[in-house]
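User: tokens in, sequence out, please.
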């Protein structure tokens, strides 16, 4: 079998898993109890691995806040010393089949959504979405209010969500997206329909249960129109966990930014990241006083939803977001059309009526990106250097990441053939 045949066979397997996987939200548990390789001395952050001295301000704040929350330190200075001394290891969440939104740092006692792929057996993880306010660890802030919220999530909110989901026997995420198809979600930066549908299903069960602060928990849950994002991030990771194990495949299985570098991983190259300088999220500034100089480069793992075929890949399903951030309906259609040209498969669980009833493209093939010189578009929110969200918009995926990946796969195949 020649190199091309090996790659085609591997990519066909990747396409089968990506379109045939069935992510089901099954539980909420402390991160240290469920995430592979997670220990009390591990913190997970977004994007490719990064040297401690390069970690940008908002992520550093989240890291230190997480360590104070865990009672490993009493001040930010003490917390950072734990990191610089090597006592606490800061690692890439996606290397653990997990994901972190924006500047988030996930620590061992934090509750995470657990999603299982019921067909191929993979599991994915992501911290529970903190809600619509800006003053959260996710956006690089830590203070007494954030501390109270973290403790509330650990002691009450997370356990209540977990108990609800277990009683319901799990929530099928494909079913959620199928039921809300045509309601304008692209399920990365916009998911109110999916979040509200999920709330309709869960609140009924919640109100039949008895747990502390039930009414407050229900109100907080129902008010969060972005709740589905973090569940879906875990869902994407659960399916990708199996794709990552396919040798010789040129399909992208991870991407994300740490504010300094942006990186991708491919199934056929194992745990290696291929990185470039992190691009900016271009689009709508959330305040007219913000400028490009105020922004960090691409930061966050929420774009793992794009690896699974959502966000910019499914832009035609959510044209409202594209228009809001300064582009047009035609641009939304073009983003999905471009993605189809460089992908190996298409999700058909939610065909888009105004896009010829086509589905969401999934499985970006590095060969096609480089060969056709077509760069997929990722949606996202930009983080300010001072912390907080500054933009909402999109960025083209950097071509050089795909070139680096192709070179590496070629080297692997050549070495195996010797």
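Assistant: Sequence out:
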């Amino acid at each position: 079998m020649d190199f091309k045949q090996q790659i085609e066979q591997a990519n066909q397997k990747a396409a089968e898993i990506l379109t045939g996987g069935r992510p089901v939200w099954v539980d909420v548990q402390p991160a240290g109890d469920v995430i592979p390789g997670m220990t009390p001395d591990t913190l997970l952050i977004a994007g490719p691995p990064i040297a401690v001295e390069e970690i940008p301000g908002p992520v550093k704040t989240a890291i230190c806040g997480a360590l104070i929350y865990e009672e490993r330190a009493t001040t930010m200075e003490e917390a950072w010393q734990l990191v610089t001394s090597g006592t606490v290891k800061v690692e890439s969440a996606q290397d653990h089949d997990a994901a972190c939104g924006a500047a988030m740092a996930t620590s061992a006692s934090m509750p995470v959504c657990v999603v299982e792929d019921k067909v191929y057996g993979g599991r994915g993880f992501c911290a529970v979405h903190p809600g619509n306010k800006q003053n959260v660890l996710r956006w690089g802030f830590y203070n007494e209010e954030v501390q109270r919220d973290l403790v509330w999530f650990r002691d009450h909110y997370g356990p209540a969500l977990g108990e609800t989901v277990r009683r319901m026997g799990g929530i099928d995420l494909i079913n959620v997206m199928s039921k809300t198809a045509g309601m304008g979600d692209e399920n990365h930066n916009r998911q109110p329909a999916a979040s509200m549908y999920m709330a309709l299903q869960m609140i009924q069960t919640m109100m039949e249960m008895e747990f502390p602060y039930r009414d407050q928990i229900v109100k907080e849950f129902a008010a969060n129109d972005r709740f589905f994002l973090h569940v879906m991030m875990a869902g994407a990771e659960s399916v990708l966990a199996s794709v990552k194990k396919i040798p010789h495949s040129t399909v992208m299985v991870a991407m994300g930014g740490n504010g300094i570098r942006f990186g991708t991983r491919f199934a056929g190259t194992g745990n290696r990241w291929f990185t470039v300088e992190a691009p900016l999220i271009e689009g709508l500034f959330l305040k007219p006083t913000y400028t490009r100089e105020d922004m960090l480069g691409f930061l966050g793992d929420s774009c793992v939803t794009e690896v699974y075929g959502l966000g910019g890949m499914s832009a035609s399903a959510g044209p409202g977001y594209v228009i809001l951030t300064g582009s047009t309906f035609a641009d939304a259609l073009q983003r999905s059309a471009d993605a189809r040209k460089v992908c190996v498969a298409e999700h058909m669980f939610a065909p888009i009526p105004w896009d010829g009833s086509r589905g969401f493209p999934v499985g970006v093939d590095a060969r096609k990106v480089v060969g056709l010189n077509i760069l997929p578009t990722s949606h996202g929110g930009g983080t300010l250097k001072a912390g907080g969200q500054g933009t909402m918009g999109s960025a083209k995926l950097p071509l050089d990441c795909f070139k680096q990946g192709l070179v590496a796969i070629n080297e692997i195949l050549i070495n195996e053939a010797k």
